[in-house]
Amino acid sequence: MILTRVKISFLDVYCHEGTELPFGGQATDAMTRIGARDGDTLNIQWAYLRDKPPTSATIGEASRAAPPLPWADREAVLRRDAEIQAIREEIQGARSKGGNPAGAG
Prior knowledge:
This protein is mainly alpha-helical. 53% of the residues lie in helices and 0% in strands.
């Protein structure tokens, strides 16, 4: 797994809010408060979908209250997104070469 259970718990709600009407909610508001924008989490969302693939047409889970925000500020979000981008590129590069990097499956 790329993400911790704490991050997956938060992303369950955040990704649901971003893909289901009425769009937005407590998790989205928490990210907005630290200055994080949708484009800041593209690789984090990729990792979420990789670690917890949807089992239906709905992504994540609805919740009236978001789990605790796992990042202290936008810079922490950007750092983690960049770390995951490197992991993603390694996995995709190995696949294009016919390999399977450790932990990728």
